[in-house]
Amino acid sequence: xxxxxxxxxxxxxxxxxxxxxxxxxxxxxxxxxxxxxxxxxxxxxxxxxxxxxxxxxxxxxxxxxxxxxxxxxxxxxxxxxxxxxxxxxxxxxxxxxxxxxxxxxxxxxxxxxxxxxxxxxxxxxxxxxxxxxxxxxxxxxxxxxxxxxxxxxxxxxxxxxxxxxxxxxxxxxxxxxxxxxxxxxxxxxxxxxxxxxxxxxxxxxxxxxxxxxxxxxxxxxxxxxxxxxxxxxxxxxxxxxxxxxxxxxxxxxxxxxxxxxxxxxxxxxxxxxxxxxxxxxxxxxxxxxxxxxxxxxxxxxxxxxxxxxxxxxxxxxxxxxxxxxxxxxxxxxxxxxxxxxxxxxxxxxxxxxxxxxxxxxxxxxxxxxxxxxxxxxxxxxxxxxxxxxxxxxxxxxxxxxxxxxxxxxxxxxxxxxxxxxxxxxxxxxxxxxxxxxxxxxxxxxxxxxxxxxxxxxxxxxxxxxxxxxxxxxxxxxxxxxxxxxxxxxxxxxxxxxxxxxxxxxxxxxxxxxxxxxxxxxxxxxxxxxxxxxxxxxxxxxxxxxxxxxxxxxxxxxxxxxxxxxxxxxxxxxxxxxxxxxxxxxxxxxxxxxxxxxxxxxxxxxxxxxxxxxxxxxxxxxxxxxxxxxxxxxxxxx
Amino acid sequence: xxxxxxxxxxxxxxxxxxxxxxxxxxxxxxxxxxxxxxxxxxxxxxxxxxxxxxxxxxxxxxxxxxxxxxxxxxxxxxxxxxxxxxxxxxxxxxxxxxxxxxxxxxxxxxxxxxxxxxxxxxxxxxxxxxxxxxxxxxxxxxxxxxxxxxxxxxxxxxxxxxxxxxxxxxxxxxxxxxxxxxxxxxxxxxxxxxxxxxxxxxxxxxxxxxxxxxxxxxxxxxxxxxxxxxxxxxxxxxxxxxxxxxxxxxxxxxx
Lengths: 637, 255
Known about the structure:
- The complex is a heterodimer of chains A (637) and B (255).
- Chain A has 637 residues and is of the alpha+beta class.
- Among the domains of chain A are: 266-400, Succinate dehydrogenase/fumarate reductase flavoprotein, catalytic domain (Flavocytochrome C3, Chain A, domain 1), CATH 3.90.700; 473-598, Methane Monooxygenase Hydroxylase, Chain G, domain 1, CATH 1.20.58.
- Chain A has 17 helices and 19 strands.
- A five-stranded parallel β-sheet of chain A has the order 5-2-1-9-17.
- In chain A, α3 (43-55) links the parallel β1 (35-39) and β2 (58-62).
- The longest helix of chain B is centred in the C-terminal third of the chain and has 16 residues, at 231-246.
- In chain B, the strands form two sheets. A five-stranded mixed β-sheet of chain B has the order 2-1-5-3-4. A two-stranded antiparallel ribbon of chain B has the order 6-7.
- Chain B is elongated, with a radius of gyration of 20 Å.
- Chain B has 255 residues and is an alpha+beta fold.
- Chain B starts with a strand and ends in a 9-residue tail after the last helix.
- Chain B folds into two domains: 3-100, Beta-grasp domain (Ubiquitin-like (UB roll), Roll); 118-246, Fumarate Reductase Iron-sulfur Protein, Chain B, domain 2.
- At the A-B interface, α3, α5, α6, α11 and α12 of A face α1, α2 and α3 of B.
């Protein structure tokens, strides 16, 4: 596997401009001759479908939901970053780039991250033009809020539903292109496999989730915009349908998988309440702007929060990190929450929780201001927990949220399979070992609206792209394989449900490959997951047939892939003998308990190549070269 | 707690469909309604029966995927809620609950509690957008929008497209859904150039899909999980009349 990132030469700030000036173009008359397949319709996929449709490509977009508008980008709450410097507080493109690289603990690629910061401003302009109702000042100017890991106020927001509004913006643009005849959308359609002919991605096999029909679609490029794989943990903030199968099946066809162990555990989710729990609900990071995180100083202090006097509370983030306080990045906040709970100071019925307290902010600003800023989040919290956060501190605990790892891509966003592009959360490129808040929306829209329209042309212009014979052996083989896999799952007719296995795997992963990892624990996890996988293939019970709507069959296929993905995550975590960002190895910490990176030996992206069923994958490296930032011990103190 | 569930079961659009009754013990008050159904489904699968199919995804009341009728009320008895955020503590031990899919001519049945809402897609595609070409936009602060106007747009932009408004309307009207989009874009300066065409296109598409007309029951507003106001319908009517009066065409509805 050859890893050529194809980073343009020249100064960092000029790379993208120069690239655009010199890249090969496809003439407007020829664009309509090229079909582009896009899987996923979130910010990355929906944006790409709209933007490529506008350019005149013939686009087919696929989503498993019943509407493109329901992709999980919709659930993002807090906001989207941009280096507008509308607050005159010293923000620049370089500063946004630097914060993102540092926030990712220096494990992302400089050129990609800089480009992300650079296009951030165009995104905000475009979203406003689409009719996204961002929060505004009384003067009519756009408002900003502060997010973790930054000392400037650069986050744009629409109440607590920024993702919803941005996705509706992309969805509206997508609809305009459907109306114009440039885009076809296939809803309730799930990708089952990737068709690779002569080493080039040429199509996908999909299943109509209502009729069960399996069919193939062909094109000159395939864009995977399928989000992350946090549901490997079973309990996560992802939607129930979010899955890693598209990227996983592409991996099995030869796409390198980079940094699978880089996962983000978000610090502010609502704690688990029972064994029946189906998912975890996020409370936006923006709450940490005004909320203060604390636990009792004494272990086992069972008094209600309002009866614990001020001097018996430990505002541990403010204590340990005086300069960033409650606004430290997510990995730091999560790890500290785990630590205080491990010390026995956790709160709530499960003792796995910490308080997020708004009393001081309410006293300072008044209830109305807080209501204006977070009203809908407070409502949601009260709905779920039956407690009023205006008078009682919220209880929060970290939850699996985002996956920085994903398919390896070069500067063009192309994977190691020519013609297969990967956008948004599904790729690995921009966030390194930890993602800062409000930058996932930024990356999705950047990749979809502003990067791929400029990088796809080169591939289309330079290749030949002969028509695909739908009856050729390659196509038939992949299609049959996808059908056989589903039939195999249906034929097991065992005794345990898919959820049973998924939940069991999630518990192992959360325990051994979550906020803290060790070699010993990872070895144990790999062993246990292998056993569980064997049991799954012998004893899972998938009711119904493949020829109709069958939600259990959908789940079974996804969970089957999760076993292998989970094992790869553990292998990757075991291989990386350092702590960085969300990847915290117990063996590698400073005396103060902070993550200790090893730049000498691990300043690279680990890229895994599939070598066959149950074979150890081959490890490759992309060395990360930092020419514009100095690698420092990340400090938020 | 103990529950009796009477659930609509229908294999596909061609099946006649019927109610099936299930008894469920040990329901925890901490569960969400969908988690309660998960538990039922696990039991059904283990017994060798087909689980109840229902749409759901984010389970955070924002994606708009879930929704069915509980004892005659879309999304159940709690105001401003979706079934995924409806919690079992709001029910009583021994409750008898009847679960049905959205029932509307324009939403064909798919299976059990799942219906086909693609009519909404076709309406949106007819013109529920601002045609903003990527790359054309001026600086985001070049057009100022008064805060109250932006907030009003946001009030309508919050629609999650779940279809509860249609299901709860005796006429099966989609006017709250369509009105929400028209009002959202109509409050913004960026939405003005296409405002008249948008109203005409969306209303025409809505009528073509077989949705009913509004006769001011306001049950849509009452069951809307996001509390979208029927002012949106008034806005739609106003834009539609203005468009028809000043940009040609008669006012006779279907034309």
